[in-house]
Amino acid sequence: MKAKSLSAIVMPLVLAQACAATVRQTRKAPPPQMIPAGTPRQPPPAPGDVDNTPNTDPDIRRLAFITPTARPVEIVYRHRARSMGSPTNGTLENGRCLPSEGPGFVDFSKNRCATDETIVLLMFAIKEVMTAYPDTPPIVLGSLSRPGGGPLKPHRSHCSGRDVDIGFIPANGRPLRHFVNLGPEGIDYDRTFFMIANLIATGRVKYIFINYSLQSRFYEAAKRMGYDEDQLSYIIQYPRPRKLRTGIIRHARGHKRHFHVRFACPDRDTQCTDE
Ligand SMILES: [Zn+2]
Fold first, then answer.
1. Which site in 24, 141, 167, 190 is 20 to 30 Å from 130, CA atoms measured?
2. How many A from CA of 60 to the centre of ligand 1?
């Protein structure tokens, strides 16, 4: 398919992206310590920049958060999909599906459906990487969920529209179409972590699974981005032992060619469960 501009995919979902200082937040904001120390804040919004229209449509959702580069973002989108049950034993209603390629990504999987929130936040993070590092090759996506969710071999999870497999960004800048074993030296840790940091900053990511053998390098990338010890221990399991699965980024078997993002249950999806 011919690649549309990123805004062509994001804009129907992102009805407004404005400074969010006075906008009612529908979710708990990510911890303020996610902002690297010393990062300048953007100036407050000009009068008229902020949409204070009362939200009466329960399907219109707003996510307000601060990016790792300290930019306030508000994403407004239509919430039609429902995540039902757990990632390992659930389904997906009215799933929203990605094309096999689009601005900033290719997806080699046949299973490209998820909740609206998963799709919107994934597109947001891809756009942030492409804006910060415009020469990044398209991000390689793998499985999300089937249109109606349910079991998806060979995965144990990916049942309920909240799991996404994302290829590590290659250090040599070569465009890829599948997950490739880049080896520890072949991963661009700074760019890949920048995408991860943007995902975490949304406040909607529950876990990111990465093999422990690669975590020390992601830990160093996070340090280079300016996170301190407290922030690092919130973000990543390393340097705690391999068996101590804690932190958003945590060990799971495999996950040497890609990382796996698990989003939290969307607000008011009452039949969605975490485990
Ligand atoms: Zn996965």
1. 24
2. 28
